Design the sequence.
């Protein structure tokens, strides 16, 4: 079963160390017993018995959706969903980059499938297996706006949704030396260059709702990289 291969290969994703109040149950027999009982309960209520499935319940080239069997502090045991970025377990990592050139910051007008709407945000990507974050950041800037970097500053990691995603994203501040046209096949309508006051206004007013963009600005601002 691939789920147990993942457990054996990446034990940190299933760790119960540090007195974790949410304990992942990986014992075959306990899982099988819970599943049998839960499927009966779901069936009696006319609900899909697949809701009791434990393990990898969906995967594609980019993500794996996993349902673990978890025991909560009150003793209750139930399935708990989380999303794993494939790049994270295959030698890569997602990245987000705040680009700067000539006194202004670059933002993308990009359409996002998940929200079915346009967003104003910084370049970012899932990451690719076997590509380290620095090279991934360089690649993202090139792929999305044909940008070339002069300098790249590490702003640390971000957990954008710790309630759902196990993965972290590396965020960067980048000084560009050149920019080309936006890649429309990525759903990018155009780029917008903004001054620092304009960027801050967009964040304050909620024009920018993207957590990666907000986090990159906050980290760079607090570290004195942008003033």
Sequence:
């Amino acid at each position: 079963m691939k789920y147990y291969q993942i457990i054996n290969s990446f034990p940190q994703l299933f760790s119960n160390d540090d007195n974790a109040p949410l304990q992942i149950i990986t014992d075959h027999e306990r899982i099988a017993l819970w599943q049998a009982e839960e499927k009966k309960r779901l069936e009696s209520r006319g609900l899909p018995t697949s809701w009791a499935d434990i393990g990898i319940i969906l995967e594609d080239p980019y993500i794996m959706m996993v349902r673990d069997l978890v025991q909560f502090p009150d003793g209750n045991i139930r399935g708990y969903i989380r999303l794993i970025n494939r790049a994270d377990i295959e030698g890569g990592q997602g990245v987000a980059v705040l680009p700067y050139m000539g006194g202004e910051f670059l933002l993308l007008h990009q359409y996002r499938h998940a929200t079915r709407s346009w967003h104003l945000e910084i370049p970012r990507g899932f990451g690719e297996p076997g590509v380290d974050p620095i090279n991934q950041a360089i690649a993202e800037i090139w792929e999305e706006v044909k940008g070339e970097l002069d300098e790249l500053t590490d702003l640390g990691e971000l957990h954008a949704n710790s309630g759902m995603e196990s993965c972290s994203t590396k965020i960067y501040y980048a000084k560009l030396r050149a920019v080309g046209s936006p890649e429309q096949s990525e759903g990018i309508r155009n780029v917008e260059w903004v001054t620092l006051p304009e960027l801050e206004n967009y964040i304050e007013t909620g024009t920018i709702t993207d957590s990666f963009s907000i986090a990159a600005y906050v980290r760079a601002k607090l570290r004195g990289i942008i003033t």
Observations:
- The chain has two domains: 2-86, 94-222.
- The mean pLDDT is 95.
